[in-house]
Amino acid sequence: MLFDTKIALIIRDDLASWQKMNVAAFLASGIAASYPQSIGEPYEDASGNGYLRLIGQPILIYGADHAALARALDRALTRGVQPALYTEEMFSTTHDAANREVVRGVERENLNLVGLAIRAERKVIDKIVDKLKFHQ
C-alpha cells in the first residue's frame, strides 16, 4: 500500500543501543499524539484477546551524526514541518516537564539533538532526509 505521507525517525548513530530504542519510542509517541489519523484499528488474535492500536503505516528510521540532524531540523522547519525532537540533555531528566524545560533553555542552533521524528507528504520527507541512510 502506498501512503500519501511518510513518517521518518532520524536518530544519532553514536548512541548506546538502549538510548536509540528509548529515543525511537519517545519520538514515535510524538507522531502518534500529534497525528491521530495515523493510528490504525485495534488488534485481536484468533482467541479473542484484544490489543492496542498501532501507527498504521511504516516508519522509516535513519541514522545521522549531529550535523546531519541539525540539517534535517533546518530542512523540516523551512518546509513548515513541525518535528518531534529529543536532545541529549533529556537523558538526564526524569519527567516530561523537565524535558520541556531543558529544551526551552537552549536556542535552536545550539540544540544537542539525538533524534527527530517527522510526518509529512512523501516528497517533503524525501527532501528533508535527502542523503541520509537507513539506521544500522
Structure description:
This protein is an alpha+beta fold. The chain has a single domain (5-38, 51-134), classed as Bit1 (3-Layer(aba) Sandwich). It is built from four helices and seven strands; from the N terminus they run βαβββαβαβαβ. The chain has helices at 17-34, 66-78, 96-104, 122-128, and strands at residues 5-12, 43-44, 50-51, 59-64, 84-87, 113-121, 133-134. It has a five-stranded mixed beta sheet with strand order 5-6-1-4-7. Strand 2 and strand 3 form a beta hairpin. Helix 2 packs antiparallel against helix 4. The longest helix is centred in the first third of the chain and has 18 residues, at 17-34. The radius of gyration is 16 Å and the shape is globular. The chain starts with a strand and ends with a strand. InterPro entries: DUF2000, Pep_tRNA_hydro_II_dom_sf.
Q: What's the gyration radius in Å?
A: 16 Å
Relevant CATH superfamily: Bit1
Strand order of the largest sheet: 5-6-1-4-7
Oligomer: single chain
What is the overall silhouette?
globular
Strand content: 15-25%
- The percent of residues in helical segments reads 25-40%
Protein name: DUF2000 domain-containing protein
InterPro entries: DUF2000 (IPR018988), Pep_tRNA_hydro_II_dom_sf (IPR023476)
Task: Spell out the blueprint of helices and strands.
Elements: E1 5-12, H1 17-34, E2 43-44, E3 50-51, E4 59-64, H2 66-78, E5 84-87, H3 96-104, E6 113-121, H4 122-128, E7 133-134
Parallel strand pairs: 1-4
Antiparallel strand pairs: 1-6, 2-3, 4-7, 5-6
Helix pairs in contact: 2-4
